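Write out this protein's structure.
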Amino acid sequence: GCGAILTSAWLVLLPRCAAPVHHSPAAALVSASCKALCHLSYVWPGAVLPLVLGRFQSALATATAMHQLPTSISTLALCVRPLLLAGWHTKEESTQQLIAEAMMAVLPGIDANDEGKTAAVFQFYTAVLSSIPALHGAAEEEQAAPVYGSAEGGSAMDGLEFGTAGDVAGGNGNGNGNGSNGKGVPVYTLPLYLDDWVDQVMERLFTLLGNLDTGPSHRGMDQQAKPELLLQSTYLGKDTLYHSFFQHLLLRLPPRLADHVVGLLGQFATERALPTVALEASSMFRSASIARPAAAVE
């Protein structure tokens, strides 16, 4: 009827209105554009998600568009959940491939010299990890039952019931491709070598903290006389999802990799002294003690 025609017309018009201001110098317009594209991606994923992904890939590939990358990453982060729910994919790549490639592509964005890009990367990783119950990679030994979200179409999370995930592992699944790790926890397998990705993430995190640490000798004699001033959070703790990202990372990784991360943290704690990023470092240690207490004690 007339209502359906008007709705379709609005759906065509709104992305065209939101896209031109996506990289506007005005922060308010950029924020409004990102949120509009996020909301529209739930309603019309087939039209909005290609636009969002295209902007992201263009910013990655074009040197002159690197200043647009933080906004493109943030927009993709906002659209991660609708992407999973819709199971949207290209002819060449499945939903999992799109997400895995983006997870690798944004790694260099963790950079102490670029606060906006670093914040966008943590936002994207947090969006991915908070949208899935558990994470398995391509080479994970504990292979799950059939994973959900495939290139054949359908919702990437269609029919997933977190409370009854054990039924999927037990052969009582509904045939939609959902999977479990055999312990009642549904998993999402990505074509991603998790070991390599985790090592690169941790290396960049430690480098980031090292670069942000200025040391007492660089903070002035007045601050040396007031140690409490050293316990001030950097932009990581104030303006990014750094804390949430690391918590979700430890909770979503397979146990062996989560313990590996805790081991890396132990080495970092004994080898480096970073007094001016003590709050950021202690946040990782606290998350490790909560997620993997036995490994943290060791």
